[in-house]
C-alpha cells in the first residue's frame, strides 16, 4: 500500500460530477488541458440551452436621434434559438418580452467567449456619464422593450440619446436580454461593435 501511495501520490482524482455539470440549463464541458502549462486549470466551455441573437448586422456607425437600422437598411431583428441553433417558435419563451440595451464595445472583445453570466452582461451596460439627470437611465431611447412573436422581433422605433464617447472604448455594442426573469436561463445576445456620433446641424 505504501508503495502504491508513493507511485500514485502525484495523481489527482477528478470526481465525475466535475466532468459534466448541469445547473439551470448551463452545461460545463471540459476541454483538453493545455500541455504547455501543466499547472493551468482545466479549460471549460459553457453554453446555455437558449440564447438570444441579433439576426442581421448592425451598422458600423450611427448618429444620435436617428432610427436604429441594420446595415442593409432593414429593421434590426432579434430571435431566440436553442442549443442546436433552431429558432424557438412555440412555448412561453417564444412570446417573451426582451429588452435592447447599449453595451460597452469591449464586452466579449473579438467574440472570444461562447458564454457569459448575467452579472457580466449587466456590468457592461453603458450608462450616461456621472452627474447626468437620473431619468437618463439608458443611452437608448424609443421602444426598447420588444415582444417576441414566434421567437423573433424587430427593433422598429429606437435611437441613441448619447454618443459612444461615454463608452470605455469609444464604441458601443447592442445587447438583448429577457425583460423579465424566467426559470430558464436565456443567454443574452450581443451585436458587433460600432460608433455612435453626433448628428451635426446642416
CATH topological fold name of the largest domain:
Immunoglobulin-like
Q: Name the structural class.
A: mainly beta
Instruction: List the strand order in the largest sheet.
Output: 10-6-4-13
Number of domains: 2
Q: Which second-level CATH architecture of the largest domain applies?
A: Sandwich
The shape, in one word, is globular
What is the strand content? 25-35%
> Would you identify the CATH H-level superfamily of the largest domain?
STAT transcription factor, DNA-binding domain
Q: Give the rounded overall mean pLDDT.
A: 79
How many strand segments?
15
Task: Note the main attributes of this structure.
4-stranded mixed sheet; Immunoglobulin-like; 4-stranded antiparallel sheet; 202 residues; 2 domains; 3 helices; mainly beta; globular
How would you characterize this protein structure?
The protein has three helices and 15 strands. It is mostly beta strands and 202 residues long. The chain has two domains: 2-45, no CATH class; 50-197, STAT transcription factor, DNA-binding domain (Immunoglobulin-like, Sandwich), CATH 2.60.40. It has a four-stranded mixed sheet, with no helix packed on it. Strands 9-7-12-14 form a four-stranded antiparallel sheet, with no helix packed on it. The longest helix is centred in the N-terminal third of the chain and has 7 residues, at 2-8. The termini are far apart. One of its GO terms (molecular function) is calmodulin binding. This is Calmodulin binding protein-like N-terminal domain-containing protein.
